[in-house]
Structures are given as structure tokens and as C-alpha cells.
Design a protein that fits this description.
This protein has a single domain (2-143), classed as Ferritin. 73% of the residues lie in helices and 6% in strands. It is built from four helices and two strands, in the order ββαααα. The longest helix is centred in the middle third of the chain and has 29 residues, at 46-74. It is elongated and about 45 Å long. It comes from Bacillus songklensis. InterPro entries: Ferritin-like_SF, Rr_diiron-bd_dom.
Amino acid sequence: MVYSQLPFYNYVRVDSDLINDIAKAINGEYSAISCYGKLAKNAATEKEKKQILEIRQDEVRHYQIFSAIYMNLTGKQPKPEITEPCPKNYKEGLKFAFKDEQETVDFYLDISDKAQDPYIKEQFRRAAADEQNHAVWFLYFCTSL
């Protein structure tokens, strides 16, 4: 167990599994930011490009929030890595993004369930809702090609 002080609460006890999950979430967001930048460049229409860039901006926000949580829990800056390479083909990239977003919803809800701290619970619950919305957009793009 790690004890940490979040700026909004007194000391909280944090399970190392939770810290590892948050680090994995940071890597996932970092990978998505990179991938969605590439997808936006290859978008079929200007409307798709704009929507993918909006999704990418959500991922940037998640990355920043999760990184701040990680810093508060560990006292260390995260060292993000691209863990999942983005397919080069646009259609394959959309399918990849859809599947990844769907899996991320479940992962973030699991983190929310594990977390003791109300702020962490809420941030991951909200991120899960965003990821579900992203998945719907990617599915729409896949079916409209």
C-alpha cells in the first residue's frame, strides 16, 4: 500500500494495483492521442477530421487528469509510452479505435470501482462515458465508408 495526499482530500491509502492501472490508462491515452492525430490527417471528410480531433482533445484531457492523479499518488511524473501502434490504413485505424475505445470503457469502470477516493472514482467514471461516446463515433465512421 502507498499513502498519498491528494490536494482535495486527506491522506488516502492506495493499492499498488490501482497505481499500475492508472499508469496503463496514461499509456493508453498517450497512444490514442498519437493515433487519432494520424487518423485525422487521413480522414475521409473535413467533418470526420473535425470530430476525430475533438475526440483527440478529450484524450488529451484524460491524459492530463490521469497524469495529475498519478503524480499526486506517487510523487513522480509518469513516463508514458505508446503501447499500441496505430494501423496505417484509415479504415483499419477506425476499426482499431472502435475496439480500443470499447475495451477502455470496461477498464475505466473497473478502475472507478477499485478506487477508494471519490475524485478518482468520478474522473474514471466520466472518462468511461467519454470513451463510450468515442466508440459510437468510430463505429459510425466505419459504417459510413
